[in-house]
Structure to design on (330 residues):
């Protein structure tokens, strides 16, 4: 009887693992390696190529920077040459350059009130509103004026042509779907680039309009009471709005959204004024105070009115450090 460990196992026969005909083990490995090498050669970038690509990008960027600097330098030389050719002295040229820098920075101050002359023959009068006008704004180019009235209309005037060139008004036939204001329009503002008109009033809705076409752009709802004052920050599309809800809001028209809401006044905010920096000064009516808001620092400075002050009604910034205010006592 044969031993158990020599007996054949029952079950299906095992399959022999063979190699494809015509290829040995070494040949198969070599074929796989060659395919891999070909794939790597297609996708691989040599270090020299990487350096050349990076250097090309750097050279392109540096060339662009140099071109900008060269253009600015050439323009500056041409401007200086014109100043010298005009016959100005070195001191006069220095004053001119200082004035140009102040204009560019938005800090130039000119005393013009004493030089202004009002002549009756140059007066232009319009009667486009059915009821009392409540707000007026002048375009940055000085060629157009817009006004708002109690009849919920906005009128655009061309000063040069001396005529009305556009009107935004609420119509009875328009129904609920129309875009015009409902109620008195108390405040207007025009952006410094002349793209937008901002308006606000009794309906507590801040409306944005296209300056050229007077087409409706956007509504902003955030105030809980009538909007009393509007002001754009210079050289930006940042808009400040004041309201009877005692708040001041900052809007960004580039992003078309609300940026910040500032609280502090104890009564209606009647006036708002801003220049180039993100600083805005406001007048708080019967809380008899003005507040200077430093938006970036999230801080505010409180300025209380004099003892006989009844109501702080208006305010205007002279520069980024000084402002003037007006109260009901004159």
């Amino acid at each position: 009887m044969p031993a158990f460990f020599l007996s054949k196992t029952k079950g299906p026969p095992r399959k022999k693992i063979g190699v494809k005909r015509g290829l040995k083990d070494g040949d198969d490995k070599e074929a796989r390696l060659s395919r891999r090498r070909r794939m790597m050669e297609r996708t691989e970038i040599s270090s020299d190529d990487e350096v050349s690509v990076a250097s090309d990008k750097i050279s392109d960027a540096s060339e662009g920077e140099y071109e900008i600097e060269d253009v600015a330098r050439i323009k500056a030389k041409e401007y200086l040459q014109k100043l010298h050719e005009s016959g100005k002295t070195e001191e006069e040229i220095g004053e001119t350059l200082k004035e140009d820098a102040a204009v560019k920075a938005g800090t130039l101050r000119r005393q013009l009130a004493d030089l202004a002359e009002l002549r009756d023959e140059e007066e232009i009068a319009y009667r486009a509103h059915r009821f009392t006008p409540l707000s007026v704004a002048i375009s940055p180019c000085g060629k157009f004026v817009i006004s708002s009235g109690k009849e919920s209309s906005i009128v655009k005037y061309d000063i040069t042509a001396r005529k009305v060139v556009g009107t935004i008004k609420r119509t009875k036939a328009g129904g609920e779907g129309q875009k015009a204001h409902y109620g008195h329009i108390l405040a207007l503002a025009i952006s410094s680039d002349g793209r937008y008109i901002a308006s606000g009033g009794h309906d507590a809705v801040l409306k944005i309009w296209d300056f050229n076409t007077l087409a409706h752009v956007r509504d902003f709802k955030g105030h809980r009471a009538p909007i009393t004052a509007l002001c754009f920050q210079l050289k930006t599309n940042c808009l400040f709005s004041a309201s009877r809800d005692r708040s001041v809001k900052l809007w960004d028209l580039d992003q078309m959204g609300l940026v910040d809401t500032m609280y502090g006044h104890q009564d209606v905010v009647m006036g708002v004024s801003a220049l180039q920096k993100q600083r805005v000064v406001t007048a708080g009516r019967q809380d008899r105070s003005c507040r200077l808001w430093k938006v970036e620092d999230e801080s505010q400075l409180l300025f209380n009115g004099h003892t006989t002050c009844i109501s702080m009604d208006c305010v205007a910034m002279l520069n980024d450090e000084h402002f003037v205010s007006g109260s009901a006592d004159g």
The domain at 132-170+181-327 is CATH 2.130.10.10 (Methylamine Dehydrogenase; Chain H). The two ends are 133 Å apart (CA to CA).
